[in-house]
Amino acid sequence: MRPFESTPIPDPGGPPVGVFGYPPLEYRPRWWLHALLFVLTLATTTVLGATFSSNLPPEIGELPLGKILIHPGFLVEGLKFSLPLLFILLCHEMGHYVACRRHGLAATPPFFIPFPFGIGTMGAVIRIKEPIRDSRQLLDVGAAGPIAGFVALLPFLAYGIAASTPATNLPAGNYVVFGEPLIYRLIAAVVQPSIPTGQELLIHPTGAAAWFGILVTLLNLLPFAQLDGGHIAYAMFGRWHVRSAWPLLGLLVAGGFLWPGWWLWVVIVLIIGLRHPRLWDEGRFLDPRRRVIGWLCVAIFVLCFMAQPIQFVP
Questions:
Q1: DSSP-assigned letters across all residues of 175-233
Q2: Are 231 and 138 in contact (CB under 8 A)?
Q3: Rounded (to 5) percent helix, strand, coil in the chain
Q4: Which of 37, 48, 38, 114 is nearest to 75 (CA)?
Q5: Is the pTM of this model over 0.85?
């Protein structure tokens, strides 16, 4: 419901008549919990990130699991993946956090989510403790994360591609092929211009971390509901975004025939809600600078887009 606004009339007994005040919400972070989740995520991403390296010491394969996990060579290779990845995720969430604080919105610092499979994490999140009231706040908060994360991953992507080695002979099977979004191809053309046709890069762990940063940015910019892309699209297009929600979901369903992971995201979108909730004040229009920021996020989505992000070769 939109708060009632009127011309303020002096009132000796309190604030002007007709004005609703919203006292700032006090929030005290549980720093011990944030630190614990970060350390656990650092551990899981380091251990699982080492599997992306093609430069592990040869004696690793002959050691028991307990000694592998504390082997200096194993840990160094794992940190080449985990530290860049966590930095990219931190920049993404701190972009949201700083935007919230600039608008006076109470928000938590980032919560990292450790996960014992895959890449060792399910990302990071912040929680906004009070409602976003107008389209300007919505666009600023929604766009700050993807832009900050995208800028943070670029140097790691450039270094990772430069440090990767071309594969002369691919194995007969049992390997993973990462999709090549436009930003990957553009940077590879600059830092690895002489890759022979038909050869693939054995991606460096730092390059793999940046690639997963690209995937996180892509998924967050999907224009649905409470995802970053949903915030940006609703702030820019309002009701038109709501009307396009089902056709866009149909495109995602069709994309599942190329990569089944899109079907998982269809389920996620249906769980969190397909349409963006209405704002308290939808009458505030975006200024030209914010519209440029919104279209910049659209450009980032195009640069990061992959119809088939991951392909398993059995």
A1: EEEE---HHHHHHHHHHSTTPPTT-EEE--HHHHHHHHHHHHHHHHTS-STTSHHHHHH
A2: yes
A3: 55, 10, 35
A4: 48
A5: yes
Average pLDDT of span 37-57: 91
CA atoms within 13 A on the CB side of 68: 16
Both tokens of 218, joined, read 């892509």
pLDDT at 5 over 50: no
Distances (CA, A) of 186 to 6, 101, 125, 183: 54, 35, 30, 5
Is the distance from CB of 141 to CB of 128 less than 8 angstroms? yes
Q: Could you give the CA distance from residue 209 to residue 79 in angstroms, rounded to a whole number? A: 10
Assigned token pair, 127: 């929680």
Distance from C-alpha of 194 to C-alpha of 213, rounded to nearest angstrom: 25
Q: How far is CA 263 from the centre of its chain?
A: 19
pLDDT at position 172 is 62
Q: Which residue is it, tokens 């394969």?
A: 61
Q: Among 70-79, 179-188, 231-240, 275-284, whose mean pLDDT is lowest?
A: 275-284
Task: Tell me the C-alpha distance between 39 and 112, whole Å.
Answer: 9
Question: What phi and psi, each to the nearest 5 degrees, are found at residue 36?
Answer: -65, -45
